[in-house]
Amino acid sequence: MVHFYIIHKILALVEPRRPSPSFLFMMGRMVAKSSNDPTQRFSAEAWPLLPNLLRVARVLTRDIHQAEDLVQETMLRAVRHIQSFQEGTNLKAWLMTILRHTHIDLHRHDARRPSADSLDAIDHDPPGAAGPADDDAWTNPDDLLARFDDDDIENALRSLPDPMRWTLLLIDVEQMPVADAAEALDVPEGTIKSRASRARTQLRSQLLPHARQRGWISDDPSP
User: 3-state secondary structure string, 117-169?
Assistant: First the structure.
């Protein structure tokens, strides 16, 4: 399917980068300060998830240093609220929930929280969404997507409404099961599935005009 190639390109774009020494130092200090057993166990289990948190944070912030700050604040909040985490449940989903709320809190002054109407619109096909005819235009999606700059893919991903972007990040980038993504975003599983599908559709519709404008594909449907 076309969306597979788009997601493959996105995965390459947001491949985890090596954290800065200062970030690793601060995270190491946090683990070292964990004096009680539950916090020590949490730190040990959360440490392998830092690259996943950083990858999502980098897409959200567009800057590796801001991403590290966001993840650091996320981990601090997680440690402070460790008593609310139930051992044996999904730690990654829990941390992603904290990351999402932390990002909202840190950018509340310029964040535009979607209204109920706009959220409802997100769960329906947008005007001009790509359809079967657009799918036919991607006759060789692997070669076509290789021509796009990373900025093209990155801008298309970031053009999505927050609920769609988060769904795509968790489902396609982080490869989380639908049930876990639904838990992290606090929505029904059916909503996750529909938002993921519509997010992929919007990515296609964002990229297709650029491909046509650059002459990579033709508007003429005839062979």
Answer: HHHHHHCCCCCCCCCHHHHHHCCCHHHHHHCCCHHHHHHHHHCCCHHHHHHHH
| 206 in a structural domain | yes
| Structural domain boundaries, residue 60 | 15-106
Per-residue tens of pLDDT for the chain, all 223 residues: 555 556 656 655 555 556 676 766 666 666 556 555 666 777 778 888 988 898 888 888 888 889 899 999 998 898 888 888 887 788 999 999 999 999 998 877 554 444 434 444 445 555 444 444 455 555 665 666 677 776 787 788 888 898 998 998 899 888 899 999 999 999 999 999 999 989 888 888 888 888 888 887 765 555 4
pTM: 0.70
Query: Do 189 and 98 share a structural domain?
Result: no
Inside any domain, residue 222: no
**Amino acid letter at 101?**
H
